Amino acid sequence: MKKLSIIGILSSALLLSSCFGSSEQPAQGATAPPPPSLKVASLSPETITVYNEFSTTLEGKQNVEIWPKVSGFVQEVYVEEGQKIKKGQLLFKLETQTLNQDANAAKASVNVAQVEVNKLKPLVEKNIISEVQLETAKAQLAQAKANYESVASNIGYSRITSPVDGYIGEIPFKVGALVSSNMTQPLTTVSDISEVRAYFSL
Question: What's this model's pTM, rounded to 2 decimal places?
Answer without folding.
Answer: 0.56
